[in-house]
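Problem statement: downstream parser choked on a complex file, so we are re-checking the raw output for the calcium ion run. The parser issue turned out to be on our end (a line-ending mismatch), but while we're here, posting the original submission so the record is complete.
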Amino acid sequence: MKRRLSITLSVFLLVSANAQAQSDLPFVVEPITSFDEPWALAFLPDGRMLVTEMKGNLIVVSQDGEKSRPVRGMPDVDYGGQGGLGDVALHPDFAENGLIYLSYVEAGIGGTRGAAVTRAVFNETDRGGYLSDAEVIWRQYPKVVGKGHYGHRLLFDAEGYLWISSGDRQKFTPAQDMQANLGKILRLNDDGSIPEDNPFVDYLEQDPFVDDEGVYGQIWSLGHRNTLGLAMDTDGQLWNIEMGPAGGDELNRIVRAGNYGYPVVSNGEHYSGREIPDHDTRPEFREPAVWWTPVISPGHLMLYTGDLFPEWRGDFLAAGLSSQAIVRIEINGEDAREADRYPMGARIRSVVQGPEGELWVLEDEDKESRGRLLKLTPKD
Ligand SMILES: [Ca+2]
């Protein structure tokens, strides 16, 4: 009897703690619908959204939660571990060419895997739609065994370049290996070709011992672990947010040809307990603008530019998985700092700004996190 009372009391305290946290938030949280392990969300010009589900489905969803059937003609996705269908991005001229870009995991030979990016025309129908003219424009190289650290976020900049984050695939050293495109941030033309002004297009001339065919030309920056967020600030400067190992999540201002030091340095340590020297021991590598221990586990990064939360304009919002929060980060030139953190009570996979400046949030689906789509609007 006593025990039951204490359980009842605990539940009551939990519920009221949650209610307390919600009442402190500067926004109203409205659950719209839910998905099967959602990963990414992108707005169509008409205000509806494309949502990816890790098992391989792409769904069109309206702002009131009406979902289409899965889009047909999708790539063959290798689902498992941290991988499956990943990001979705619209071509800057989507209204004219209908092109969308999808990142996903594809299987290789001998149990290997790697991320890939396909672009295809999205054809809408009453029931959902289908992809046509699909073409794989990028692949992780090399494919390796394991199911983690794909990265594979996509971002178009104002000049129309496609940025891809490529994770280290939990293999550490590829992040410093110029013959791999793992552990890098890459800059491509919209068809996957290499921009002539990328920093390492003439890398062969710098190192005669590397393969004469390689991925050098794609590379913009290196020494990254697992970048799950890419965003431009109001000046058009690229930043990334990446998962650290045990400790040491990083927000970095990404400069041309910059080396961010992983796995040589990190403000975290290996999960095995083995130490990794901190950033301040090796000044030749670029230090993070912000780092987090304990970690926030960033799943996504966006720049807020809307009118509904005017005091947040020019700030970044990061989706927090293990931290179960949205983290607001103020940018000031080359510096940044965590300005606030909003507890959401679930692992947050992605935060995207809607057409009116409202926020659309995807929860992860894992344990108590239910894969819901949430709409956030200001509290009066
Ligand atoms: Ca360290």
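For whoever reads this later: Residues 266-269, 275-278 surround calcium ion (CB under 6 Å).
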